[in-house]
Design goal:
Ferritin; mainly alpha
């Protein structure tokens, strides 16, 4: 059945392509944050263990919202590690860094996700896609706030 929501097929595809990158960054940052939650050690263990759990839960929920928006645009959402690996701008961590390096990597990840989100916002705004623009605005706020909170730990 054809979809007619007031956004052309070409624009829906362009927006969904941007959202797929947002989704890949979100999922990759979720995985990294969850990894750090499991493997944190040292004097900041308790506070960072709890903080990382809050953050990965927020990212997990966000991933579902982003994927469902892609589907609302009548495009299939990426859903494999291979696809996410090709789409993400988040640097993978395969080791277990010290807590300060974990925090810095998460700051970098949230800032990267914000930059990816800004590109998606431009595509949504150009196509007059308010629901996607709203979703991205909320993601920008979450990433920028989380980056600020993490950055504050490093001062």
């Amino acid at each position: 059945m054809a979809i007619d929501i007031g956004i052309s097929a070409k624009d829906r595809k362009k927006i969904a392509d941007h959202l797929s990158k947002v989704l890949a960054d979100t999922y990759s940052l979720y995985l990294k944050t969850h990894n750090f939650h499991w493997n944190i050690t040292g004097p900041m263990f308790n506070s960072l263990h709890v903080m990382f759990e809050t953050q990965y839960n927020e990212l997990w929920t966000a991933a579902d919202v982003i994927a469902e928006r892609i589907r609302s645009l009548d495009v299939y959402a990426p859903g494999s590690y291979t696809q996410f690996g090709k789409l993400t701008s988040i640097k993978e961590e395969t080791g277990v860094p010290e807590w300060k390096d974990m925090v810095q990597q998460l700051v970098d990840g949230h800032e990267t996700a914000a930059r990816t989100g800004r590109a998606a916002f431009k595509a949504a705004d150009a196509a007059d896609d308010q629901p996607t623009a709203d979703l991205i605005t909320q993601r920008l706020e979450a990433h920028e706030k989380t980056a600020w909170m993490l950055r504050s730990l490093l001062k």
